[in-house]
Write a structure and sequence with these properties.
The protein is mainly alpha-helical. It is 70% helix and 0% strand. The protein has one domain (3-271). Bound molecules: fe (ii) ion (2 copies). One fe (ii) ion (FE2) binds next to helix 6 and helix 7.
């Protein structure tokens, strides 16, 4: 791996942390809220399992055939194992088997939309160029930034609440995936820093929507954000409106207004009232 790509990963992590600074508090509030209630915690763990399973399923659907390599099979097997790990923990907390039916998860539609919209945006950036490999590596990198960020917060909150669930090896594997994707893209000259920065901002806005929905379903949105009139705005967290989302334009990548999950800025945030 070149020094350049190593530097890039450090810079990208810093950029990600700064862009997500406003989401850290609400994410910790959600984590604290669900950990405090065993049934909510089980549903939350089951939701993480579903997300990991969706990630594994997308790898299986997009990467197949004679070119399938060992690194991709390793990635697929580890994401599937993460789904198994979270499901097993969820069932331990709940004391019974759990399905991925809506009533046994949090914000299942938002979870599916998160993946679907992110994948649509990634595909659009690669339309007509290359095969299925570059979109897969790009999508994986974007998701791994979120996974490492969120699981580190989750691990801290589990430790704070003295819950005996360790995410240490899982976090190490997610970091390994990020490094592996960066290496593989770097080797074939497929890294496009501007596309990655923009897609990461799109992902942050999609995560923001998912987080808001989870806060709503756990009752925490009302508890944390209700105004003096008892009314809670639909959008309680600000959208990301970075310079990449405002001005970026590359080949087949759509303009920012066309990007699903793209930021709409503070005006849209403020205009949302009680629903
Ligand atoms: Fe994973
Ligand atoms: Fe991963």
């Amino acid at each position: 791996m070149t020094v350049e790509i190593e530097d890039y990963l450090v810079q990208m992590r810093t950029r990600f942390s700064s862009e997500n600074a406003a989401l850290e508090g609400p994410t910790n509030a959600l984590l604290n809220g669900v950990i405090a209630n065993p049934e909510s915690h089980a549903r939350f763990l089951n939701t993480l399992s579903a997300l990991e399973q969706m990630g594994g399923h997308r790898i299986m659907v997009s990467q197949h055939g004679r070119a399938l390599d060992l690194a991709t099979l390793k990635h697929l097997s580890e994401e599937t194992r993460h789904a198994f790990f979270f499901k097993r923990q969820a069932e331990r907390q709940m004391g019974r088997p759990l399905t991925y039916e809506s009533h046994e998860m949090f914000a299942p539609n938002s979870a599916y939309q998160y993946f679907k919209r992110l994948e649509a945006n990634v595909k659009r950036c690669f339309e007509g160029r290359g095969g299925a490999r570059a979109p897969y590596l790009t999508m994986s990198m974007i998701v791994e930034f979120r996974a490492t960020w969120a699981y580190q917060l989750y691990q801290s909150q589990l430790a704070r609440a003295s819950v005996a669930i360790s995410l240490t090896s899982l976090i190490a594997e997610e970091k390994g995936h990020l490094l592996d994707m960066a290496r593989r893209m770097d080797r074939t000259g497929e890294v496009n820093y501007r596309v990655l920065a923009r897609l990461s901002s799109v992902e942050t806005n999609l995560y923001r929507r998912f987080l808001q929905q989870m806060l709503a379903e756990t009752g925490l949105r009302q508890k944390l954000f209700a105004g003096a009139d008892g009314c809670t705005p639909k959008n309680v967290l600000p959208s990301v409106a970075t310079k990449e989302l405002r001005s970026f334009s590359l080949n087949k990548c759509p303009a920012s207004g066309e990007m699903e999950g793209g930021g709409h800025g503070q005006a849209a945030f403020n205009s949302q009232k009680c629903d």
